[in-house]
Amino acid sequence: MFVSLDPERDTPRVLKDYLSYFNRQLIGLTGSQDAIRQVSSRYRVRYQKHPLPNGSYSLDHSANLFIIDQHGQLFSVVPYGLPPEHVQRVVRSLLDNNMQSVQSPKDASR
Predict the structure, then answer these.
(1) Domain map (residue ranges) of the chain
(2) How far apart are CA 96 and CA 48, in angstroms?
(3) Helices vs. strands in the chain: H and E counts, helices first
(4) CATH of domain 1-62
(5) Which of 4, 57, 81, 96 is most buried, with most CB under 10 Å away?
(6) Are the C-beta atoms of residues 98 and 71 closer than 8 Å to each other?
(7) Residues 1-43 pLDDT 10s
(8) Does residue 84 contact residue 96 with C-beta atoms inside 8 Å?
């Protein structure tokens, strides 16, 4: 899932075009400035709009990868720039935790 921090520029059409460069299963989300503020606060994403001399603006933001579990809870934050092997270890850890928390009906009756 990709969450835009810039609803002024990142319209649904712009997001669709941008995401076409990535995996087809990636979903792009945008919303009101207030909704984006709430989500960014929840996950401690920092962003700041900077006006440019030409009247446009740039948007600086953190670029971490947020790993969310099957309950919608934050499992891990992977800082930008870490190698893919690190991400792979984090995802494997999440999957291992999920498998340990799932009991078969036979196991649950013991």
Answers:
(1) 1-62, 64-103
(2) 37
(3) 4, 6
(4) 3.40.30.10
(5) 4
(6) no
(7) 899 999 999 999 999 999 999 999 999 999 999 999 999 998 8
(8) no
The residue assigned the tokens 């909704």 is 35
Tens-digit pLDDT profile for residues 43-79? 889 999 999 999 999 999 999 999 988 888 889 999 9
pTM: 0.70
Strand partners of residue 51? 57
| 40 touches 48 (CB < 8 A) | no
51 three-class SS: strand
Cα 39–chain centre separation: 10
Binding residues for Cu cation are 61
Binding residues: 61
